[in-house]
Automatic annotation (TrEMBL):
<protein>
    <submittedName>
        <fullName>TetR/AcrR family transcriptional regulator</fullName>
    </submittedName>
</protein>
<dbReference type="Pfam" id="PF00440">
    <property type="entry name" value="TetR_N"/>
</dbReference>
<feature type="DNA-binding region" description="H-T-H motif">
    <location>
        <begin position="22"/>
        <end position="41"/>
    </location>
</feature>
<feature type="domain" description="HTH tetR-type">
    <location>
        <begin position="1"/>
        <end position="59"/>
    </location>
</feature>
<dbReference type="InterPro" id="IPR001647">
    <property type="entry name" value="HTH_TetR"/>
</dbReference>
<keyword id="KW-0238">DNA-binding</keyword>
<dbReference type="InterPro" id="IPR009057">
    <property type="entry name" value="Homeodomain-like_sf"/>
</dbReference>
Amino acid sequence: MWKYFVEATAQIIQEEGVPNVTIRKVADLAGYNSATIYNYFSELSHLVFFASMKFLKPYTDAAIQVYREPGLTAQERYLRVWEIFCQHSFENPQIFHAIFIADLGSQPEELLDHYYSVYPADLIAVPDELQQMLGTPNITQRGLFSLELLVKEGHLQQENIAAINELTLLIWQGMFTSFLNNRSRYSPDEATRHTVRYIREIVQNANQMHLADEAVQ
């Protein structure tokens, strides 16, 4: 029953877009009344979250390929995954908003755990270091997991990564919000190129920027 509603929501997203998802449409498509949905989902945003996760696989698959490429340093891998994240988020802003930015209440981690318990195949063959990152919808935690790998290879100092993470996320969020709300004239490719350029400059020059004193504790 849970899957019926998620798959109906995914179909509406694919055909009409996230803003056009309503409880009534989902119920009608699934063949049940609206009240039944609330036996399985606390609110519409949770249903949209689960359905949106089904559209995240192209990004996940592309990120996995980066982790399988031989010879990349942690920094090269970090920047490449950021580039892929930007490409997919600017091409599918409503999907990424539903997963990473929308207000889901106090239980986003529980929602993600439940999703992977129902669709475990989505985590098959995911490298351990990437699986840790994919295991949380908290974009701040995702960034910190990735930056820890740069610390291990000596690219960054441990005391700088909180500030680096905050700066990189603010850059993406600012560009993404403008793009999502049609306040930017950039194409997805242009938005990706500019965002990644700023992130690259921060990461490559972080150890000379004395960020630790300004990091939010």
